[in-house]
């Protein structure tokens, strides 16, 4: 069984792409709705919550857990992989959504080629904590120093999406964030845009509408699903064929989590509340 985890509904956008690519694997999803949003929490809180979530998924039989949350991946992944996993569960694996996304973006020759005459600019929209962690700029710099990354924290956007704000409310919020980014860039359009929060694919169309025309918006769910499929092929010892079962857990209200699942996951999902 493969575990997938997010602070709330956002990871369902990743799970949707994963199950489409790996239809015969079993998945266990955990939304930590009781503690969302993570993007406004401190780093120690995010590390502790992420460790608890991964423990819960390991204890229920997952050999691999995907942090389907950029904030958790940016803040907690490295610490957990290096300082916790080797002693706690050396035979299990934790992966995030950030590195596959960076690998995909820096693998695009026209974006990554440092020898071209001008620096290509990528804009990153993410939560406050993901931006503060500098995980995206650090990972991009290692692979493609020619890329200029401009980060913009969309404070409150994940919460609006999580709480089911109307399209008009979301449109207004997205337009505001794009306006701020464009002002930061002096009105010059970026070459590509990354939506570095797993809630944002739900408003990708609103970003496209607010941005100048023709800008590529990188699709994180597809990238992550492709990368995980390749990872499993390289690591057969942690892969287990299943029957396509998908189970959903939440630390919050199962009825509300199930209500949003159709939008985020594309089909109905029945959530079970975890004890405690
Ligand atoms: N979906 C999460 C992410 O990808 C964050 C949302 C939150 O702030 O909890 O960053």
Overview features:
276 residues; alpha/beta; Rossmann fold; 2 domains; four-stranded parallel β-sheet; 48% helix
Top CATH class of the largest domain? Alpha Beta
How would you characterize the largest beta sheet?
Answer: 6 strands, parallel
Number of domains: 2
| CATH topology heading of the largest domain | Rossmann fold
Bound small molecules, by name, code or SMILES, are: D-glutamic acid
Question: What letter string, H or E per element, gives the SSE order?
Answer: EHEHEHEHHEHHEHHEHEHEHE
CATH architecture of the largest domain: 3-Layer(aba) Sandwich
What overall form do the CA principal axes indicate?
Answer: globular
What is the structural class?
A: alpha/beta
The proportion of residues forming helix, as a percent range, comes to 40-55%
Low-confidence stretches: none
Task: Describe this protein's structure.
By secondary structure, the chain is of the alpha/beta class. It has 2 domains: 2-98 and 221-273, Rossmann fold (3-Layer(aba) Sandwich), CATH 3.40.50.1860; 106-219, Rossmann fold. The chain has helices at residues 11-21, 43-59, 70-88, 98-106, 109-112, 128-133, 135-143, 157-162, 167-184, 204-210, 220-234, 254-265, and strands spanning 2-6, 27-31, 64-67, 93-96, 120-126, 147-153, 192-196, 216-218, 246-250, 271-273. The protein has a 6-stranded parallel β-sheet with strand order 4-3-1-2-9-10, sandwiched between helices. The protein has a 4-stranded parallel β-sheet with strand order 6-5-7-8, with helices on both faces. Strand 9, helix 12 and strand 10 form a beta-alpha-beta unit.
């Amino acid at each position: 069984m493969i575990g997938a985890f997010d602070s709330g509904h956002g990871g369902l956008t990743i799970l949707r792409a994963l199950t489409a690519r790996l239809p015969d694997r079993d998945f266990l999803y955990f939304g930590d709705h009781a503690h969302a949003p993570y993007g406004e929490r401190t780093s120690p809180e995010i590390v502790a919550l992420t460790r608890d979530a991964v423990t819960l998924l390991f204890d229920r039989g997952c050999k691999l857990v995907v942090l389907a949350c950029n904030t958790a991946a940016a803040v907690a992944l490295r610490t957990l992989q290096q300082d916790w996993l080797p002693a706690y569960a050396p035979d299990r694996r934790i992966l995030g959504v950030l590195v596959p996304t960076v690998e995909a973006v820096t693998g695009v020759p026209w974006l990554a080629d440092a020898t071209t005459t001008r620096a290509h600019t990528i804009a990153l929209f993410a939560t406050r904590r993901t931006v503060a962690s500098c995980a995206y700029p650090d990972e991009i710099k290692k692979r493609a120093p020619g890329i200029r990354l401009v980060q913009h924290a969309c404070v409150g956007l994940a919460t609006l999406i999580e709480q089911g704000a109307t399209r008009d409310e979301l449109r207004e919020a997205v337009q505001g964030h794009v306006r701020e980014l464009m002002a930061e860039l002096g009105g010059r359009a970026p070459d590509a845009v990354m939506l570095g929060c797993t809630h944002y694919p739900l408003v990708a169309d609103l970003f496209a509408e607010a941005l100048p025309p023709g800008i590529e918006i990188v699709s994180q769910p597809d990238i992550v699903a492709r990368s995980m499929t390749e990872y499993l092929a390289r690591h057969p010892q942690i892969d287990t064929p299943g029957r396509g079962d998908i189970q959903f857990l939440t630390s919050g209200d199962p009825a509300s989590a199930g209500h949003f699942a159709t939008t985020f996951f594309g089909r109905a999902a029945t959530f079970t509340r975890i004890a405690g």
